[in-house]
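Researcher: I'd like a candidate sequence for this fold, 411 residues long. If you have to choose between options at a position, lean toward the conservative one.
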């Protein structure tokens, strides 16, 4: 399970420089991405208001404490040292993650049939997995620009690594988090230049395996059947989804006002402030409040893709893409659940839902994005932040001498 960029020798006959030579010393630090920081700051403020109106004082105090911890950790990552230090530690981070995922299955705290928490419920390794997988997979892929297109030495090891993490998460059980981790890693693999036919084959296998895992749990099957038969199971699996959807519809365009929502009185405090906080926002601030949240996440996506486009090296590109995809896809899943676009599942809304591990790890991910933003190459950044990631597969592998003759710099 080696991570890190290895010393690749020159390829015979093509004069290609070693990978470590291509990763020259980082560019001088530039100004941090203020637009990204501002968008995340506004989402945090919305989160504080949502938790305040959906929970009791104890939950609000906990949310404020974890927000402070997350902001401090993000500040350290963004301002102290170089993001390449995190890259060097990626193998140990991955090993530590596997240890925590095994530990939670052995001695974790069980709540409502799931064993997801350690240390009295303050640490959830499944949430930490999203951040660690982004860092480790970015490091792993960036050190194998050619191998990833080969089945035996590229795709198979990748499948083994990701399956190990997702399998341990499913055993908790935490099906939705496993799906998110799989989606994040797959998006990074595609961006790194994996062959589409191999992705389709591995994707088909993943669908079969995940379908098997889904039908092994009755409550998962009930949720899917309830989603497909919305009108026929109103008193069973659809009770909570119908309640959530009703809260959003009750809000109308302008909402019923902060603190005046009724949805939170019918659901447990933890559910209202975490798994369906977007419903609270929709009921109390209406469509306009929901559109503001969507716009802020769209801004995070734009700035994240812009940072990935201008990142100075493969690891930074893939890490920026992974963090952006993680935040945006998780936000989409949460909002899709509330609006009945997908079956109900418990996924926190980034920066807004109440929660310790989720909030802290997401903010650390933003800190990594901000750290990379200080090294972007302005010449590579387009106004719209469009990204072309396959930098090592669309480039002709010719010698430096040939490229120099083409440019008129050599005889």
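Model: Candidate sequence:
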């Amino acid at each position: 399970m080696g991570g890190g960029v290895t010393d690749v020798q020159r390829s015979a006959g093509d004069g290609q420089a070693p990978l470590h030579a291509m990763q020259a010393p980082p560019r001088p630090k530039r100004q941090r991405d203020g637009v990204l920081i501002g968008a995340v700051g506004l989402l945090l403020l919305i989160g504080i208001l949502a938790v305040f109106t959906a929970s009791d004082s104890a939950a609000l105090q906990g949310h404020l404490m974890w927000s402070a911890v997350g902001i401090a950790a993000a500040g350290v990552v963004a301002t102290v040292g170089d993001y390449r230090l995190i890259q060097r530690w990626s193998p140990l981070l991955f090993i530590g993650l596997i240890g925590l995922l095994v530990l939670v299955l052995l001695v974790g705290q069980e709540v409502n049939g799931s064993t997801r928490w350690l240390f009295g419920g303050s640490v959830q390794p499944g949430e930490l997995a999203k951040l660690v997988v982004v860092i480790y997979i970015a490091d792993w892929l960036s050190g194998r620009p050619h191998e990833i297109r080969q089945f035996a030495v590229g795709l198979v090891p990748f499948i083994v690594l990701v399956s190990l993490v997702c399998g341990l998460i499913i055993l908790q059980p935490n099906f939705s988090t496993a799906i998110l981790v799989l989606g994040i890693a797959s998006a990074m693999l595609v961006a790194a230049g994996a062959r589409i036919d191999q992705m389709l084959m591995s994707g088909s296998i993943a669908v079969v395996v995940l379908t098997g895992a889904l039908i092994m749990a009755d409550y998962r099957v009930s949720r899917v059947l309830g989603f497909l038969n919305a009108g026929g199971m109103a008193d069973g699996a659809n009770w909570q989804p119908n309640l959530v959807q009703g809260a959003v519809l009750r809000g109308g365009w302008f909402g019923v006002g902060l603190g005046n929502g009724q949805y939170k009185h019918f659901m447990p405090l933890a559910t209202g402030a975490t798994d369906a906080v977007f419903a609270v926002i929709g009921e109390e601030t209406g469509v306009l409040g929901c559109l503001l949240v969507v716009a802020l996440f769209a801004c995070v996506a734009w700035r994240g893709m812009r940072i990935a486009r201008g990142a100075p090296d493969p690891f930074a590109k893939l890490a920026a893409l992974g963090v952006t995809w993680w935040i945006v896809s998780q936000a989409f899943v949460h909002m899709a659940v509330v609006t009945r676009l997908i079956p109900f599942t418990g996924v926190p809304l980034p920066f807004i839902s109440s929660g310790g591990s989720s909030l802290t790890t997401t903010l650390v991910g933003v800190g990594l994005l901000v750290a990379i933003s200080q090294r972007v190459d302005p010449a590579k950044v387009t106004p719209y932040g469009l990204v072309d990631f396959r930098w090592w597969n669309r480039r002709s592998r010719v010698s430096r001498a040939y490229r120099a003759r083409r440019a008129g710099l050599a005889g």
